[in-house]
Every structure is written in C-alpha cells, then in structure tokens.
Design a protein that fits this description.
Helix content is 41%, strand content 13%. The protein has helices at 14-22, 35-43, 55-58, 70-82, 102-116, 130-138, 154-157, 167-183, 195-204, 224-227, 245-261, and strands at 27-31, 48-51, 88-92, 120-122, 143-148, 187-191, 209-212, 219-222. The longest helix is centred in the middle third of the chain and has 17 residues, at 167-183.
Length: 272
Amino acid sequence: MAGYLVEDARKVTTHRLQEMKQQGKKIAMLTSYDFTTAKIVDSAGVDIILVGDSASNVMAGNHTTLPITLDQMIYHARSVARGVKRAHVVCDMPFGTYQVNATEGVRNAIRIMQETGCDSLKLEGGEEILPTVQRILEAGIPVMGHLGLTPQSINKFGTYAVRAKAEAEAEKLIHDAKLLAQAGCFAIVLEKIPATLTQRVVQAVSVPIIGIGAGPADGQVLVIDDMLGKNKDFSPKFLRRYADLHTIMTDAIGCYVSDVKDCQFPTAEESY
C-alpha cells in the first residue's frame, strides 16, 4: 500500500496547512494520546495529530470530555509530541481552562505550550470566547477553532444530535467562523453539522475547515480508537472503521493466555 507515502517530509506548519487549502490538497487529521501511537500515526502520513480532550472518554472511561484536567492533557500532549517528527500537533484546551476569563486562558495556554512541545491549541466556541482567542493569538500561540457540536458544552445542548439544522443557528455558526478566521485562527473544526452548511463555511472563510460528521471539507478528523475499531460500542453514521483491532487484539491476547496456561510459552528458545 503506497497511499500513505508522504510527498513532502517537512514539518507541517500553520503556513503549510494554509497552502494545502489554497492548492486544493486535503488535510488528514487523527487523534493520538500516547507516544507509541503518535509515532505510528506520524509515520503513516497524517498531517495533523490532535491530542483531544476525547482522551477523557477513550483513555479514562468518562462519559464526557468535561472531567479531564489541565495536568492530564499536558501529560498526553507531551507524550504525543515526543513521538512526532512531521505532523502538526494540536492540543485541546480542556473544559474550565479558558472559559473564566482571557487572562486565565492565556496563562493556561502558555503553560501547555511550554510543558508539552505541541504546535498549537484548539478551543471550542465562537463569539463568546473571541476575546480569549485573541489574547492567546497575541501571545504568539496558534489557535484552531471548533464549532458545531462542541462536546464541552454537552450539558447545555443535552444531546449529541446534529447541530445547526435551523437557519438561525446556521447563520450564527457562519458568523462565528468568520470571526475566528478574522481573529487569526489557522483552521476550524466543524463537528456534526449538515454537509451543506459545511460547504457554506468552506466558501465563507479562507482558513482550512476540518470536518467530523460534517461532510466533505478541506480535511477530516476522526478519533483513532474509533476508526481502528478498538471501540465496538460507538457507531455513528459518520464513522468509517478501517480495521477491527478489537477482534485482532482479543484473539491475540486469548492465544497468549492459552499458551501460558498450556505451558507453551515461553519455550526453551524464548528463555535465557
């Protein structure tokens, strides 16, 4: 399989991502939460690695992204950044670290950048967090926006259903996307919105639009554990599984258990 071979091995920067949009080259983005996985994802040619607050669900077993702390996100982001050479590494700012005020948001943003080695940060929200976004950008930290279904606001929404079906919400989303782009965000994630609305946003702003459950865009992002089939309990319409690691891992572990119990492992050749 040669599809994953990278034409340009240079580090992916915000400038290069902008070039990719202008040249019509699609952007591939996946999550990672640990060093070993990040090394594999990077070598496979992914352009952006997101250290998502979805680690709250995937790594810690929480029902939402809300419980994960700043210290935990820093731990995951530092682990990922150590394993990456080419991909652009963006870290989610977790819930509660930027919503209080801009000063606290900037302080936490600087701490993440200093302690992790990641390349940029992602914040959820539009006009309501614009002052904080602007202050973080003024501090020299690249910011990726996130609109549509914003999981940190799940208690306000009360559902993970598709957002912005009504025109009023759609217009606000386009307005927010324009504000984020004008402020200087280098890209925007759109989550779980109608594909027609995504196209309106792609046309309305000059920065790359990354979709998840939002139809075609300048790029796509998925949670790696979902697309590799490690999680059998999550099957939304937008998810394409590229492997069935749940079955592969279960079979491999089962064989190991059998070999140990049947005294087939270790053999003389596997002993010192």
